[in-house]
Amino acid sequence: MAEQTEQIDFVWSGTDKNKKKTGGIISAKTEIIAKTELRRQGYRVITFKKKPKPLFSAKVQAITPGDIAIFARQLATMLKAGVPLVQSFDIVGKGHDNASMEILLLGIKADIEAGDTLAEALNKRPLYFDELFCNLVAAGEQAGVLETLLDKIATYKEKTESMKKKIKKALTYPIAVIVVAFVVTTILLIFVVPVFADMFKSFGADLPAFTKMVVHMSEWMQAWWYIVVGVVVGIVYTFGYFKKRSRAFNHFLDKTLLKLPIVGLILNKSAVARFARTLATMSAAGVPLVEALESVAGACGNIIYTEAVLKMREEVATGQRLQFAMQQAGLWPHMVVQMVAIGEESGSMDSMLLKVADFFDEEVDNLVDNLSSLMEPIIMVILGTLVGGLVVAMYLPIFKMGAAVG
């Protein structure tokens, strides 16, 4: 990770061993290391300078998993077309809209030119290429089917990112409702209710109990609003702090989320889909089951499932069949266990698991759509109750006076 941030990109031009003009970009920690590497590769350097940063795109663009998926697909397409690996990196890297991605790919290209395999070059960049990605690339290079494996990686990444977006959508919706309701209520209590309260003082009449309660809430909010803000900021900070640093907290959080109605069902099904798709991809690449399960554990997206897969890996390593290890874990639906059993017996594990993954992907799609449909009326009810309640509380004294006059 540190190595990645320390590398500098240099633009150079010169001649190769055959006296032909050439040039490019090389990444290294220092100028001396870069020039030494170029000389080692047989190039005679004529011009050499640090790559300038563009004026209007100087902001560092984050490299997203979507960028990595697109890269895998593009590289697979290039290799299938018969383009050499180094040239493929040159084409894909220089044609990328994301400047950070261009630097990353041209850095990998430089490592490959220096003699590294693609898997070794990717392993140097764990921030962007996880263990699963590197293992599959290594398997593809060893078997001579790199383009096929890259195609599978791209499909896997695309499906996984699509699943993550669905989960975020499912979890963000109810949180957004709570935040909007809180903000709207706070604005009404601080800015709108005081206007009505001043008007009520001129009436000189006794206010209804509901109106008094709302006015008192407004007065308290105006006097102590910074406490409310401090508590909210404190809760958000504490949550983020423990989420990053405490395994016990993450274990409790993941376990609690799995038990929630609807949301828990979505998370359970998505974890099963990730497990099935990751194991199917590893199995299709010919990765041994015990080794594959280690990578699969980290791809489940939930600590409860991660721990279960690691325990299954230990049992499989002692000679137990995967289907029995899954049964003992007690997390996987009966249908999934049966599909794995059929796959083990018929030798078609990857195709069976892909069917499981597609089925549960569709289940998650339906659940997210249902949750969205269910949340719309709930939003209306919550906001209507809060805003409507405050409006009614403000108009009750006016209605009471109207009734008295009548």
Could you characterize what this model shows?
This protein has 406 residues and is mostly helical. It has three domains: 43 residues; 94 residues, Up-down Bundle (Receptor-associated Protein), CATH 1.20.81; 247 residues, Type II secretion system (T2SS), domain F (Receptor-associated Protein), CATH 1.20.81. The protein contains 16 helices and three strands. The protein has a three-stranded antiparallel beta sheet. It is flat and about 100 Å long.
Features:
406 residues, mainly alpha, Receptor-associated Protein, 3 domains, 16 helices, 76% helix, disordered N terminus, cell membrane, Type II secretion system F domain protein, T2SS_GspF_sf, T2SS_GspF_dom, membrane
CATH topology of the largest domain: Receptor-associated Protein
Residue stretches low in confidence (pLDDT < 50, at least 5 long) are: 1-5, 55-59
Using the CA coordinates, give the radius of gyration.
30 Å
What does the overall shape look like? flat
Give the overall pLDDT as a whole number. 83
Strand line-up in the sheet with most strands: 2-1-3
In sequence order, what are the helices and strands, one letter per element?
Answer: HEEHEHHHHHHHHHHHHHH
| Assembly state (oligomeric) | single chain
Given helix and strand content, the structural type is: mainly alpha
Domain module tally: 3
Helix count?
Answer: 16
Domain Type II secretion system protein GspF: 71-194, 275-397
Keywords: Cell inner membrane, Cell membrane, Membrane, Transmembrane, Transmembrane helix, Transport
Pfam family, one: T2SSF
Family: Belongs to the GSP F family.
